[in-house]
């Protein structure tokens, strides 16, 4: 998931940068739909920006946690059109990261 | 201690970062993306990790500081003229910037668990700041300027940019006050002072117009134009409710206050039928609330009454009924159109028109106008004339026009039951004399009458029409299967349906020719309906006699009795009265009457001046007449008038029966009723048909008591009880 960042504006992808500097590239639409905070941050309807709007530094989140967040986005995307809840497999979260993940979820509102 | 300080330092740093971003946005400066994104983190930190009020208080202070700086800076330095436009520009900018800030504030709301319910959302803070720091202190000035700008625009040209500015100003009030203080604050701080100011200006301006110089007509036009312009303008600037209120204020000063003066010329306008001016006047008066055009209506009523009475007074002649109905219709159409075109088809005016017509049709008014017949009879005769008219080719058109005339006039007819009797009488006349031009209009008229007069009455008429048709079938069948020797048609009418009675039938011996046919037909008919009883109505039966004695052939039509008399002269020239009676075997008075008719018609000569039992009669050898076809009427004019009064008597008898039915029906429902209530109820039920007087009703009540349908209450003689 960690790939080279893209530096142009108006791309279909955004780069989420963790506190350690690791970059995660995610589809822009998925990120803004599933994380309300990211949606607000990337709201293009009212702001004049200097520079590109593709990199978001989330200094409060470690790479591990950010990785799980991206996995969660992916998980949601795959099963978003599922008719019933029973078919969806559980999203596993290892206990040691659970708390951090909880805080991340609060920050990102997702 | 140290950690406490560190925390505070972190907190302050985060706040400073956020504050910078907010201020940049408010000042329309651009923000770099990293800063923007970082502010989200700052918000997160501040809302989650500090106490709740910290962030809120800081944001409020920042907003207030900014707005205060605006008001102290830009607004205080502008002159009054440009104040409105400067304000409008600043407001628009502020709104736009706050919009850009929306994601931040929304995020704050999302994180803020408690605040939403207690202290209001973050998003409202921006408007609240605007209201308290800027708008409130300047409200009065701005309202005043707004008013004067509107009035200038109304007087002079409409300036589109001004309109935009004014709209923004109004909108700013609406948003700012409603968000922070709700509708009440908005109304108190903006709408009320605004309305008061506008109202005051209208009052002053309207009092400055020199109305007497202008004249009522011109003032009305001016006022109508002004209010239209006013509405056009205000609806582009203000919200709907406010537009209405401004309009009311305008109406109060320009319309209502001037109403009485404007109406001073009303009488003349109506009397002279100055239609254009009346149209404007009506539109003018329509704006005034709670006003129902009394003056206009009473003038209109007088106008219609005058013209209506004039058009129906002193009508005479054979066709008085045609003239009457046609004049009535003309008058009605004229004034109904007037209502439609000038008074906006206002129903209350139509009611006035109806009342005038109803009054005109009453017996007293007709008498005063020298009309010989009642309105009911007029209408019946009118229908009769039209249905006899043989010249018009188009049946449907005839019926449509008749239907229109009928539907217009019938509601005004006084005593509709008199109409019903006359119509039935005239229709039976038409059918018997074969003067019906076509069955279609007759049948359609019966359908129409069913709607207006009820199905019981219409059934009678339908039976008459059916009898007529059956009769022609009978005639065909009879003449085809029997040898008769003379041309013969028969009409069989059901008794009690047709308006003739079999009580006054002439009794005499008919001539042989006729008698043979009579017997043949009776045999034929009774074979078909052996339970029917036939009565021959000779006085209604026309006979055609071809007289070949003279140089010219004459064809004379007369009834069977007269025929019987004339045929006696086939083999002799002279007969005495008594001899005639031997042959005819009838009573002397009837015979005398009929012979007199023949003498009047010049076919017979009598040796005495008055026909009597001692007279002798001679056939007139020197009879000459310009016409070939001669009709000998069975009755003189005197008798027709007597017939009319007979109809009136039948009507009265019918009414008694009707009243009794109504009384019984009412009492059956109520079981118990006091005298006055019963009278009132019965009067209301007979209203359209005829006017029942209290004494008439009382008589019928007495009769019903005698026949034990009702009784009086033992302890209260004024109350009646229904006897089941």
TrEMBL record, chain A:
Its main location: nucleus. The lineage of its organism: Eukaryota, Metazoa, Ecdysozoa, Arthropoda, Hexapoda. This is Elongin-C. Residues 13-77 form the SKP1 component POZ domain. One of its GO terms (cellular component) is nucleus. The keyword Nucleus applies. It is found in: Nucleus. It comes from the Eukaryota. Belongs to the SKP1 family. It comes from Cloeon dipterum. Keywords: Nucleus. The keyword Ribonucleoprotein does not apply. Gene3D superfamilies: Potassium Channel Kv1.1, Chain A. Pfam families: Skp1_POZ. One of its GO terms (biological process) is ubiquitin-dependent protein catabolic process.
Automatic annotation (TrEMBL), chain B:
Pfam families: Cullin, Cullin_AB, Cullin_Nedd8. Keywords: Isopeptide bond, Ubl conjugation. This is Cullin family profile domain-containing protein. Gene3D superfamilies: Cullin Repeats, Cullin, Chain C, Domain 2, Winged helix-like DNA-binding domain superfamily/Winged helix DNA-binding domain. One of its GO terms (cellular component) is cullin-RING ubiquitin ligase complex. It comes from Cloeon dipterum. GO terms for biological process: ubiquitin-dependent protein catabolic process. Belongs to the cullin family.
């Amino acid at each position: 998931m960690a790939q080279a960042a893209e530096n142009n504006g108006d791309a279909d992808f955004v780069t989420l940068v963790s506190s350690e500097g690791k970059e995660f590239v995610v589809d822009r639409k998925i990120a803004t739909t599933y994380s309300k905070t990211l949606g607000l941050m990337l709201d293009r309807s009212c702001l004049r920006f200097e520079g590109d709007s593709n990199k978001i530094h989330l200094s409060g989140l470690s790479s591990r946690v950010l990785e799980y967040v991206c996995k969660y986005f992916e998980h949601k995307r795959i099963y978003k059109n599922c008719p019933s809840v029973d078919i969806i497999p559980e999203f596993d979260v290892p206990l040691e990261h659970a708390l951090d993940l909880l805080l991340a979820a609060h920050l990102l509102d997702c | 201690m140290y950690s406490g300080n560190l925390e505070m330092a972190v907190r302050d740093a985060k706040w400073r970062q956020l504050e910078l971003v907010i201020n940049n946005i408010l000042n329309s400066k651009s923000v770099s993306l990293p800063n923007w994104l970082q502010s989200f983190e700052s918000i997160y930190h501040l809302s989650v990790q500090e106490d709740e009020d910290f962030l809120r208080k800081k944001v409020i202070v920042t907003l207030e500081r900014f707005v205060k700086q605006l008001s102290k800076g830009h607004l205080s330095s502008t002159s009054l003229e440009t104040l409105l436009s400067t304000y409008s520009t600043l407001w628009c900018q502020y709104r736009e910037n706050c919009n850009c800030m929306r994601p931040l504030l929304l995020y704050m709301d999302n994180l803020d668990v408690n605040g939403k319910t207690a202290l209001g959302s973050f998003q409202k803070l921006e408007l609240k700041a605007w209201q308290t720091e800027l708008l409130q202190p300047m409200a009065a000035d701005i309202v005043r300027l707004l008013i004067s700008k509107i009035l200038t625009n109304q007087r002079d040209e409409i300036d589109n940019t001004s309109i935009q500015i004014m709209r923004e100003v109004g909108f700013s009030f609406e948003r700012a006050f409603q968000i922070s203080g709700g509708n009440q604050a908005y109304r108190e701080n903006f709408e009320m002072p605004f309305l008061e100011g506008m109202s005051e200006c209208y009052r002053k301006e309207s009092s400055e117009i020199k109305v007497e110089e202008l004249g009522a007509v011109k003032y009305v036009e001016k006022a109508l134009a002004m209010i239209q312009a006013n509405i056009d303008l205000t609806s582009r600037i203000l919200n709907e409710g406010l537009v209405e209120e401004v309009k009311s204020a305008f109406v109060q000063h320009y319309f209502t206050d001037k109403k009485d003066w404007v109406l001073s010329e009303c009488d003349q306008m109506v009397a002279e039928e100055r239609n254009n001016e009346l149209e404007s006047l009506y539109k003018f008066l329509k704006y005034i609330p709670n006003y129902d055009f009394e003056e206009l209506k009473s003038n209109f009523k007088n106008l219609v009454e005058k013209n209506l009475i004039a058009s129906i007074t002193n009508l005479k002649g054979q066709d008085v009924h045609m003239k009457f109905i046609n004049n009535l219709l003309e008058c009605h159409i004229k004034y109904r159109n007037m209502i439609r075109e000038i008074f906006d088809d206002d129903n209350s005016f139509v009611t006035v028109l109806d009342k005038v017509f109803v009054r005109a049709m009453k017996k007293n008014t007709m008498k005063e106008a020298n009309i010989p017949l009642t309105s009911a009879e007029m209408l019946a005769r009118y229908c009769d004339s039209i249905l006899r008219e043989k010249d018009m080719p188009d049946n449907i058109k005839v019926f449509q026009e008749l239907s229109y005339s009928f539907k217009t006039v019938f509601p005004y007819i006084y005593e509709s039951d008199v109409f019903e009797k006359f119509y039935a009488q005239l229709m039976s006349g038409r059918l018997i004399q074969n003067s019906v031009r076509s069955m279609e209009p007759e049948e359609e008229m019966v359908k129409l009458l069913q709607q207006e007069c009820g199905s019981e009455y219409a059934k009678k008429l339908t039976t008459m029409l059916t009898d007529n048709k059956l009769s022609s079938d009978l005639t065909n069948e009879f003449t085809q299967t029997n040898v008769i020797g003379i041309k013969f048609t028969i009409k069989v009418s059901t008794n009690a349906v047709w308006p003739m009675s079999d009580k006054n039938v002439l009794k005499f011996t008919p001539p042989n020719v006729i008698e043979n046919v009579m017997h043949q037909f009776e045999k034929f008919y009774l074979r078909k309906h052996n339970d029917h009883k036939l009565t021959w109505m000779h006085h209604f039966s026309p006979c055609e006699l071809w007289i070949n004695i003279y140089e010219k052939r004459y064809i004379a039509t007369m009834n069977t009795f007269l025929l019987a008399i004339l045929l006696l002269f086939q083999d002799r020239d002279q007969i005495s009265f008594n001899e005639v009676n031997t042959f005819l075997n009838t009573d002397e008075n009837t015979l005398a009457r009929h012979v007199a008719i023949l003498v009047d018609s010049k076919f017979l000569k009598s040796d005495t001046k008055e026909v009597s039992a001692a007279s002798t009669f001679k056939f007139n050898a020197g009879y000459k007449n310009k016409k070939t076809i001669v009709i000998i009427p069975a009755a003189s004019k005197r008798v027709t008038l007597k017939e009319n009064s007979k109809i009136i008597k039948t009507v009265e008898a019918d009414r008694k029966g009707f009243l009794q039915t109504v009384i019984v029906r009412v009492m059956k429902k109520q079981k118990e009723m006091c005298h006055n209530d019963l009278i009132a109820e019965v009067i209301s039920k007979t209203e359209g048909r005829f006017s029942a007087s209290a004494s008439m009703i009382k008589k019928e009540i007495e009769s019903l008591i005698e026949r034990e349908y009702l009784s009086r209450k033992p302890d209260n003689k004024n109350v009646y009880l229904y006897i089941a």
